[in-house]
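A quick aside before the break. I want you to see a complete sequence-to-structure record at least once, exactly as it would be stored in a machine-readable document. Don't worry about memorizing anything.
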Amino acid sequence: MKKGRGMNVFVGAVVVLLALTCIASLLLAHFVMNGRRPTLEEAWEWQSARYDTSFYEGLQKTDYLVAGYDGYELHVELLTNPDPTDRYVILTHGNTNNHIGSLKYVRMYLDLGFNCIVYDMRGHGEDEPTYCTYGDLEGKDLVELIKDMRERYVKLTQLGLHGESLGASTTIEALAYAPEVDFVVSDCAFANVESVLRLQLSSRHAPEFLVSLANLGIRVLYGRSIYDMRPIDALDKNIVPILFIQGDADTMVPPQSARDLYERATGIRELHYVAGADHAESILVAPDEYRETVTAFLERV
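That is the input. The structure line, written in tokens, reads:
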């Protein structure tokens, strides 16, 4: 009898452990693929606390919807340059942010003679809630937005892309489809999602096996794999000139990612590290250096 009870306890413990593992896997998967996303008001407060956003209020704004991949609706805003121009740049924000997060680059591009397109990536801002695919579906959405730009603004003479973090990786993913664009500025893009998760776990002294545990849940809930989320693979046949910018003190995306992307890219490309800049803060830490770097790159291409 005692032996039987002991076996029952053991089996019960295994069942409980497996159940807890499954629950942990699903919770991790949900956290990785979703995360808390700020409202437009919260994003505005964050941006306004770090630089002068007053220029935005005086700009002519045009809001509209664009059908992204599979008809998913993207909320788009055109910020018209006070000085008439037929040059445009599409700015793509980072994960858990929204189009307000792109404003820190707008003033620079207005000064450089561009109209600016800011938009909410799928699942963010005013778009319908959905999970993040780390550049896969988002990159396809961006391709559709580029097509819409070419049809909507028929006098367009130059079209560039500028992305930050997930927005930069999304921009790189879009390049796999050979979109009709003239240049790309990639700010703190990740080469692959796995390296980002491992850096985050390491910084928190958490075991790396949690990456595999999260991946199990992601496969179950979303039918995807962390190990397939590799924007770097989209660069093999790219011919669009790219400027990679990366803060060398980035605690979110491994600074090595920028070098890996640069070395994998083909065609005209440049790599610039900003000393002392954490994740997505390069333009805030060194605004003059940032502007000069982008300006010089655009003059080259």
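Two observations worth writing down. The chain has a mean pLDDT of 94. The domain at 39-192+229-300 is CATH 3.40.50.1820 (Rossmann fold). We'll return to this after the break.
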